[in-house]
Amino acid sequence: MISLRLGRMSPHETERMLDFDREHIWHPYAPMPAPVPALPVVSASGVRLTLADGTELIDGMSSWWAAVHGYRHPDLDAAVTRQLGKMSHVMFGGLTHPPAVRLAERLVELTPEPLTKVFFADSGSVGVEVAIKMALQYWRSQGRPERHRLLTVRGGYHGDTFGDMAVCDPVNGMHHLFSDVLARHVFAPPPPLGYTADPDQGYLDELARLADAHAGELAAIIVEPVVQGAGGMRFYAPEYLRALRDIADEHGILLVLDEIATGFGRTGELWGCDHAEVSPDIMCLGKALTGGYMTMAATLCTDRVAHGITSGEAGALMHGPTFMANPLAAAVASASIDLLQTRDWRDEVDTIEAILTSELDGAAGLPGVADVRVLGAIGVVEADEPVDVASVQEIAMSYGVWLRPFGRLVYTMPPYVCTPDETTHIAAALRAIAESFGETGD
Fold first, then answer.
1. Which residues are annotated binding-site positions for pyridoxal 5'-phosphate?
2. What's the pTM value of the predicted model, to 2 decimals?
3. pLDDT of 72 higher than 70
4. Active site residues
């Protein structure tokens, strides 16, 4: 058996662990067995990961954008410990508990009006599934079952379950292998690149044309607001989001905003939709919801949607995860929100944005670099060609930084609590990686 303890592991223990991991454990989007060993993390504190040999790396990924407060934060540790002394879990069917109620109160208070109803799920992917089901069941309850398709844009990513895969990019996304068995939805081209770019009237006309052509069969529009995440790390102008809200209102279509990656301040506003000053009919939250401590998601909707669903034949939303509203997750989520609101998170995110912008200045002109973009606490270097993950990570680690690239993208979403020096280290790693694209033999 592997000895699990804090601190360093012996080389023998580490080798045994990695051998077993490689032969028996799947990792995200990885073959089996994995050709390259995963890095063995034995502890994490602040914004640093400690490897088995004692190496420390600044986590430039926030554990896939979730650990916005870093690791082992005393307030969050205390919230979990307090709740653990009361109950770790209880079924949510027919029961409720203070952590769930308190968290729901906070979410209704923080999210845009008129979102008033909260459905707790156990992952971001399931949260999007719930949103899709809400939209479909709403129209079925209204006697309009023909409204069963969704309008979205290419370049999007919404999760790995089947409903979610059907609204991810069907050509360049990660799920094209399943296209023959997924629901067929309506796709607009990806929004033109550039948060500050002037809106393209031709693109706006295309959105309106698609909605008009399919209005009678559309249940909802679903997009990631302002920032497309794992589908390409693309930033687009808020005007396009406002246009989608107007289109939805014109045709009586529901607007679903997937804020799982963009929520809780990541883009420089509390919610991605705040950039466009619009409110959705359904909103999906996850990732940073619990500060990266536990898996949890929440799907919020308006009174209109909730009452419309329950007025139908089923009389209820037909979904109910086993670990719905888990008390541990709910308690730490409320503590994470409290922590976010008591710190000046805007200043933290603005500082990260300023440092990334300054340190990456001019990198877009380097050989092999297609684009460099920064928004809030997000920095992206896009290469002309797919990057070699192992070599990119080797460069990052030489700067004491952990990054996880994919496709042509090397990016960072650091914890908000990174110091200026730590953020500068991350930016320096990104700059060195960008410079490596133009080296002979790459």
1. 124-125, 258, 321-322
2. 0.96
3. yes
4. 29, 157, 258, 287
